[in-house]
Amino acid sequence: MLLRVENPKVHYDVGEGRVRAVDGVSLSMERGEVLGVVGESGCGKSSLAMALLRLLPSNARVEGRGPFDGVRLPGERLRREIGGGAPR
Question: For residues 69 and 1, what is the distance between their CA atoms, to the nearest angstrom?
């Protein structure tokens, strides 16, 4: 298994409440497969991708698991390279 995402949840703390961007969609990929994530604007596609890379803003709250080839994705290194600071 190259990628397995198990029940991710991404919520953003905004103003006086919380916005649910991703609420428990699981997926998996084998090496050599291609996966497309399709949906309406604002349905959480980008939040899911950013959560996998650990590149979400500081007001984001993430639950779930998303190992890549048995190891967490290198979000901390990527954030330093693009100047984003420490991951959440």
Answer: 6
